[in-house]
Amino acid sequence: MGKLFYIMGKSSSGKDTIYENLLQRHDLKLTPFIMYTTRPIRAKETDGVQYHFVTEETLRLMQEEDRVIELRSYDTVQGIWYYFTADGEDVDMEHHNYLALGTLESYAKVRDYYGAERVVPIYIEVSDEQRLARSIKREKKQAVPNYEEVCRRFLADQKDFSEEKVTNAGITRRFANDADRQICMDEVASYISLSLIHI
Q1: Distance between terminal CA atoms of the chain?
Q2: What is the phi/psi pair of residue 37, to 5°?
Q3: What is the pLDDT of residues 58-114, one digit of tens each?
Q4: Is 90 helix (H, G, I), strand (E, B) or coil?
Q5: Long-range contacts for 78-82 (Cβ within 8 Å, ≥24 apart)?
Q6: Using one digit for the tens of pLDDT, what is the confidence trace for 14-41?
Q7: Residues 25, 21: Cα–Cα separation, whole Å
Q8: 127 forms bridges with which residues in the sheet?
């Protein structure tokens, strides 16, 4: 029986870097759990790498087959784009272990779909001071910095990842990524290794 390791955390917690690092650790043998979207593919993107790029008709068929786990929509200038998690044809939970990156809300839905014994939360935590400093530093590098968006995202995360919601999601193990990123990545990798031993 395979497992799905689900990485989550507030913005600027370093979860994307940790996700990429774990996929490169060949000893873990983790397969990326790819999400879906109906938005157009962008330059330098590859279908099946960043996302599975599908049509709204494909989304509808997957919904009819009860394979859509969670679904979000965004109203853009180009119309409504859908992003969703699904039990795709490329997912073989019996023979492979997967690594996903998502939100606390999507984690709960994926856990309920596959079962708590198969979905393992990896919660990355960074102090608010560090996160805000990292966000501002990153935004400074943009051609037109949008500090209002930094503040909006920061405040939204305070609600989306409130202590109450984290506790209700059953998350008890946290990985601190304040000081040394390498230490955090090694701790997560060790945790995953131990989890795989006990399958």
Answers
A1: 7
A2: -150, 155
A3: 999 999 999 999 998 888 878 899 999 999 888 898 899 999 998 898 999 999 999
A4: coil
A5: 78/39, 78/40, 81/37, 81/38, 81/39, 82/36, 82/37, 82/38, 82/39, 82/56
A6: 998 999 999 999 999 999 999 999 999 9
A7: 7
A8: none
Q: Cα(92)–Cα(125) distance, rounded to whole angstroms?
A: 30
Pairwise CA distance, residues 88 & 52, whole Å: 10
The 10 Å CB-count burial string (b at 16+, else e) for 124-159 is bbbeeeebbeebeeebeeeeeeeeeebeebbeebee
Torsion of CA 14, 74, 72, 122, to 10 degrees: 0
**3-state DSSP of 174-190:** EEECCCCHHHHHHHHHH
Residues present in the chain in total = 199
d(CA 117, CA 170): 12
178, 127 contact by CB (below 8 A): yes
| CA dist list (Å): 99 to 6, 21, 54, 137 | 6, 11, 21, 28
Please name the residue that has the structure tokens 């490169």: 24
